[in-house]
Amino acid sequence: MEPKIRVWVVFDEQLKLGAGRAQLLRLIDERGSLRKAAAEFGMSYRNAWGYGAGPRSGMRLTPAGRDFLACYQKFRGGLEEAARRHFAGAFRGKEFRMRPRSPERSARGRAAAR
Q: pTM for the complete prediction?
């Protein structure tokens, strides 16, 4: 059992940056190409293009973009570490398990039975 958190930075209540966009931006900067970054990220080029228009080739983050991404990653890492510590304290000495679902009650089980 482990905690999972999601966090976004919201700009003007319209554009938000979360882990997915941050990873895509990091890959764009490392690969120098939206197409290569999208392929490595497992996203279509067209979908990646929808995250932000730019030149057809030779994409890189600006120094300000790299700085922002570094701040975001530091912020997110701190939240994840704090969540792990708090989770460990809250659940110390406890053991919880998911009970298995009967095949009849799961969607996969019902589909397989058809």
A: 0.71
